[in-house]
């Protein structure tokens, strides 16, 4: 579903963030990208939805070169969740969740119905939280809205960049286990960036262990842990 072929990214100024990356993520697979800060995880992820352009090589999503088509069209097929959720402060939880359906021109009743369904799915009662504004939620609840929003138009691919990084450890554990259940139900093709090896092992079907611009190991959790 996602395929990197000899992808290199050099930033203006000379930093080579990633070098000759080749890997594949299967449909419905959740791959965690783990490694210390500055080793190229975010750069790798942002090239998938074309927020960053590769210097060399190519990236295919569902067989199509991401650089070939319309980036807006590409991003409609790719949900994106980041640490600071980027929720619109003057939009309610329901409206925030329905952002992409709104952009796609779905009728109001259908968007609201879909938003309610998604809020239920991420464990937020839409009757209680739907009409609140983001600043009336806890950090963990805002992250749930971020996930609901990313899933609203049912994209096949989900990119998550340290989505649970800004909440306290107890809340993070709940979000992680609920996200696992959610993923079992919706089966998206997921790239999930984290610097926390425990999180990478808990969530990943496979783990891409990054070190300074290259993937040093790409294996299921048991192998990554069991390496002698
Ligand atoms: P990670 O997500 O693993 O922390 P990044 O992909 O953010 O790593 O960064 C990889 C390398 O690229 C780092 O050395 C970082 O300083 C550099 N880098 C990231 N973004 C830019 C940019 N916009 N311009 C120049 N260098 C950048
Ligand atoms: P109406 O009841 O007239 O259909 P809408 O719900 O379409 O009203 O929208 C009212 C205003 O709010 C419009 O300016 C619309 O662009 C904006 N809006 C509504 N829903 C969203 C959303 N989910 N995301 C962003 N803007 C929205």
TrEMBL record:
Signal peptide annotation: none
GO molecular function annotation: ATP binding
UniProt superkingdom: Bacteria
Keyword tags: ATP-binding, CBS domain, Nucleotide-binding, Repeat, Transport
Transmembrane segments: none
Family: Belongs to the ABC transporter superfamily.
Name of the protein in its database record: ABC transporter ATP-binding protein
């Amino acid at each position: 579903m996602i395929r990197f072929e000899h992808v290199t990214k050099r930033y203006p100024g000379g930093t080579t963030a990633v070098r000759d990356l080749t890997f594949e993520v299967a449909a419905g697979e959740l791959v965690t990208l783990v490694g210390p800060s500055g080793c190229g995880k975010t750069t790798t992820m942002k090239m998938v939805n074309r927020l960053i352009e590769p210097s060399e090589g190519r990236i295919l999503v569902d067989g199509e070169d991401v650089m070939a088509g319309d980036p807006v069209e590409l991003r409609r097929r790719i949900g994106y969740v980041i640490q600071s959720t980027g929720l619109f402060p003057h939009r309610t939880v329901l409206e925030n969740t329905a952002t992409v359906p709104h952009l796609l021109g779905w009728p109001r009743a259908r968007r609201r119905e879909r938003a309610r369904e998604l809020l239920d799915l991420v464990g937020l009662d839409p009757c209680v939280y739907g009409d609140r504004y983001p600043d009336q939620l806890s950090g963990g609840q805002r992250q749930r809205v971020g996930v609901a929003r990313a899933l609203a138009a049912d994209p096949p691919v989900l990119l998550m960049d340290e989505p649970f990084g800004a909440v306290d450890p107890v809340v993070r554990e709940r979000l992680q286990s609920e996200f696992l259940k959610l993923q079992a139900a919706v089966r998206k093709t997921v790239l999930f960036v984290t610097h926390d090896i425990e999180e990478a092992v808990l969530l990943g079907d496979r783990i891409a262990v990054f070190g300074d611009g290259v993937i040093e190991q790409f294996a299921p959790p048991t192998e990554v842990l069991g390496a002698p």
